[in-house]
Amino acid sequence: MLILCVLAENEATRFNAIGKAIPDISPKVLTDTLKSLERDNLICRKTYMEIPPRVEYSLTELGKSLMPVLGSLVDWAIENSDKIN
Q: Tens digit of pLDDT for each residue in 30-80?
C-alpha cells in the first residue's frame, strides 16, 4: 500500500526514490513487492536503454483506479486509530 501511495504522488519514480520514501523497507522486500505489483498489473516498469540503465515505476490505470479505495481505507484507519490501538 505504501509503494502505491508513493507512486500515486509522482508520474514516474525510480527504485531508490521509492526506497527513500519508505526508509524501513529493505531492498529485497522492495524488489519483491515491485515485481508482485507489476505481475498484478497495478504498476508498470519502464526501462530506458541508457548508460547506466534507468528504470522507472508508475501506476497503471488499474493501479490508479485503486487509489480512491486506499484513500478511504486510510481515512477509516485514522478515524478509528484510538479503537485499533
A: 999 999 999 999 999 999 999 988 999 999 999 999 999 999 998 998 999
Among 21, 1, 19, 22, CA closest to 67: 1
Catalogue all structural domains in the chain, each as residue range(s) with its CATH number: 2-84 (1.10.10.10)
CA dihedral 12, 18, 20, 21 (to 10 degrees): 90
Measure the N-to-C terminal CA separation of the chain; round to a whole number of Å: 20
Q: What DSSP assignment string belongs to 7-72?
A: HHHSSSEEHHHHHHHSTTS-HHHHHHHHHHHHHTTSEEEEEE--SS-EEEEEE-HHHHHHHHHHHH
Measured CA to CA, the distance from residue 8 to residue 12 in angstroms comes to 9
Higher pLDDT pick, 47 / 85: 47
